[in-house]
Design goal:
heterodimer; A: mainly beta; ATP Synthase, domain 1; B: Pyruvate Kinase, Chain: A, domain 1; five-stranded mixed beta sheet; CF(1) (chain B); ATP synthesis (chain B); transport (chain B)
Chain lengths: 86, 298
């Protein structure tokens, strides 16, 4: 199955980018998990952790504050004015 | 030593000191351009992501938002002027101020009242000297703009955009700033920030086959969250561009100042040599004349 192309972007730099198997983020409506093949989506993030699971099973966590999440044809973008890996 | 010679030597010395300073400033500016440019390019992923999201919303929904609708009658327009805090940058500040004046003239001729938001000590000084009013001012961080500053500016202009015209709100917002074209060229640019012109059909080509787009929680809320962020990122980008352009302008101005100092030093050295030679010639002829007189007196 195709992998997700994820990038975590903050206002002044690209924090992380690469391939991933799954992304879990917290939107204003609750937690959402995104797997490859997800429908196009634009959501507002509630702030907090974004968990990215790499194809190998490793996990990366990033903190993102007031941003949004966009999913489009297997590319996921987490965009926040402030974001950092934790 | 002749008086003339001393004057020339003094001038040479002062030109040399000035040259040392301008040379140092040139080198400093040159190293800062790199950094400023790196910041501009580091911020592009963010603005690209936001632009893409905004165009996605514009393409997949037809919701009217207060920030994108053109008001029927524009009574008051705001101009945000981005200048630097320091001078010694050639025409950098004056060209952006001139551009802003032209824009204000144009807006007034259309029957709109103009209010100003100023960024940078140079713009503030320009307005103070002419005893002119401005709505808000920001100074002190134009050399190395942080995102917080962009946010503050965006909040201020959005607030006054959303206020009613009868309460002193504005219906239109323009930004005037210098764009960094190359090391040698920085051009003043005018951008209309609000109301937003979301250009239709700018979505990615691969997006054409996806009619479905899910918005969470819903389109209005997403737009509410997204558009201010879009404005912030546009302002942040303008600030970074202006900072990079400022350093490039400083470098150019300081380079020509150093070249000028070089030329002055050469010219004055010639004159000083001339004066010294004239002095020696005069001394010789005095000695010869004196010796002749002694011989004749014997």
């Amino acid at each position: 199955m195709a992998a997700l192309n994820v990038s975590v972007v903050s206002a002044d730099q690209e924090v992380w980018s690469g391939e991933a198997a799954m992304v879990v983020a917290k939107t204003v409506e609750g937690e959402i998990g995104i797997l490859p093949g997800h429908e196009p989506m634009l959501a507002i993030l509630a702030g907090g952790e974004v968990r990215v699971t790499l194809p190998g099973g490793e996990k990366i966590t990033a903190r993102a504050e007031d941003g949004f999440l966009s999913v489009q044809s297997n590319s996921v973008q987490v965009v926040a004015s402030r974001a950092e890996l934790s | 030593m002749g008086a003339q010679l001393r004057v020339y030597r003094q001038k040479i010395k002062s030109a040399q000191t000035t040259k040392k300073i301008t040379k140092a400033m040139e080198l400093i500016a040159a190293s800062r351009i790199q950094k400023a440019q790196a910041r501009v390019s580091a911020s592009t992923p963010y603005s690209r992501a936001i632009t893409r999201a905004v165009s996605a919303v514009a393409t997949y929904s037809n919701v009217d938002h207060v920030l994108t609708t053109e008001p029927e009658k524009i009574e008051r327009a705001a101009i945000v002027i981005l200048t630097s805090d320091r001078g010694l940058a050639g025409a950098f500040n004056s060209q952006v101020l001139r551009e802003a004046e032209e824009l204000a003239e144009l807006l007034r001729s259309q029957g709109k009242e103009v209010v100003y938001f100023l960024v940078g000590r140079k713009a503030v000084g320009y307005f103070q000297f002419r005893h002119r009013e401005s709505e808000r001012q920001w100074t002190g961080s134009s050399e190395n703009p942080e995102f917080e500053l962009a946010k503050e500016i965006a909040d201020a202009v959005l607030e006054s955009f959303l206020r009613d015209a009868s309460d002193g709100g504005v219906d239109e917002i323009h930004v005037v700033y210098n764009t960094f074209v190359s090391m040698m060229t920085q051009t003043p640019t005018v951008v209309r920030l609000l109301p937003l012109e979301v250009v239709e059909g700018v979505a990615e080509p691969d997006a054409t086959v996806q009619p479905l787009y899910e918005f969470e929680p819903d389109v209005e809320t997403v737009l509410d969250g997204l558009l201010p962020v879009y404005i912030e990122s546009r302002i942040f980008n303008a600030l970074l561009q202006s900072a990079a352009a400022k350093h490039a302008a400083t470098q150019k101005a300081m380079k020509s100042a150093s070249d000028n100092a070089d030329k002055l030093i050469t010219d004055y050295t010639r004159l000083a040599n001339n004066a010294r030679q004239a002095e020696i010639t005069q001394q010789i002829s005095e000695i010869v004349g004196g010796a002749d007189a002694l011989v004749a007196a014997k």
